[in-house]
């Protein structure tokens, strides 16, 4: 391989990495647009935008997937199926939340993969990598205040209980910042989705535990899913 071929491969790799970061950083904007189109207000004013959101989410997933490196591709691909299983358990079986229609939207499992991939890419930002130790402390403090604030001030014990379990899980994972950045993406999409009434969390989980809409402690279930996801992909050989 001559120097020109090596340079072309390097440039292609750098361009691909740049595209991956673009899709991750554009995630908040895309989320607002896509969920607004699926919102009750959009449906009342214009038309039912569910199918359009489905198309946009799948298209965004494909573009993000195409720009990603091999390992992240495996994570995204597996996440689509794992998250759909999670939807069946937490939404349909346990009834922890409900979508604005009876069916689980097609865009949801692809959206979960986009959320995960965005948080994963954020954790690779040079600023976060250079300040790993400091950010671990900041993230821990911020999430602790969030869980306690929502739980004690608003009397939503869901966030305290599952927030504590989130920290137990984080301790086992050595407080890796990637789980925090994914959790931040989760919180963002939950706030946007419930604001637009694309889905709604029930006031009491299992009829017993008071929960906000959305409950901040829900990040525990995503983090647990992330651990399972990483374990599954670890058995995926090239």
From TrEMBL:
<feature type="transmembrane region" description="Helical">
    <location>
        <begin position="216"/>
        <end position="236"/>
    </location>
</feature>
<keyword id="KW-1133">Transmembrane helix</keyword>
<feature type="transmembrane region" description="Helical">
    <location>
        <begin position="106"/>
        <end position="123"/>
    </location>
</feature>
<protein>
    <recommendedName>
        <fullName>Integral membrane protein</fullName>
    </recommendedName>
</protein>
<feature type="transmembrane region" description="Helical">
    <location>
        <begin position="143"/>
        <end position="170"/>
    </location>
</feature>
<keyword id="KW-0472">Membrane</keyword>
<feature type="transmembrane region" description="Helical">
    <location>
        <begin position="177"/>
        <end position="196"/>
    </location>
</feature>
<feature type="transmembrane region" description="Helical">
    <location>
        <begin position="20"/>
        <end position="39"/>
    </location>
</feature>
<keyword id="KW-0812">Transmembrane</keyword>
<feature type="transmembrane region" description="Helical">
    <location>
        <begin position="75"/>
        <end position="94"/>
    </location>
</feature>
């Amino acid at each position: 391989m001559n120097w020109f071929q090596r340079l072309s491969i390097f440039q292609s790799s750098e361009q691909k990495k740049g595209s991956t970061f673009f899709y991750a950083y554009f995630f908040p904007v895309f989320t607002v647009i896509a969920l607004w189109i699926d919102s009750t207000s959009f449906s009342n004013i214009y038309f039912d935008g569910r199918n359009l959101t489905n198309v946009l989410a799948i298209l965004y997933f494909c573009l993000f997937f195409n720009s990603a490196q091999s390992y992240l591709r495996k994570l995204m691909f597996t996440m689509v199926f794992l998250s759909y299983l999670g939807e069946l358990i937490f939404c349909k079986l346990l009834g922890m939340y409900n979508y604005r229609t009876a069916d689980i939207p097609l865009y949801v499992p692809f959206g979960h993969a986009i959320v995960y991939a965005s948080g994963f890419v954020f954790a690779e930002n040079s600023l976060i990598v250079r300040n790993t130790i400091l950010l671990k402390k900041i993230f821990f403090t911020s999430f602790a205040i969030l869980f306690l604030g929502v739980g004690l001030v608003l009397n939503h014990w869901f966030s305290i209980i599952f927030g504590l379990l989130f920290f137990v899980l984080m301790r086992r994972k050595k407080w890796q910042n990637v789980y925090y950045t994914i959790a931040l993406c989760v919180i963002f999409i939950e706030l946007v989705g419930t604001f637009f009434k694309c889905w709604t969390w029930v006031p009491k989980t299992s009829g017993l535990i008071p929960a906000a809409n959305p409950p901040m402690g829900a990040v525990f279930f995503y983090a647990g899913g992330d651990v399972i996801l990483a374990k599954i992909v670890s058995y995926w050989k090239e």
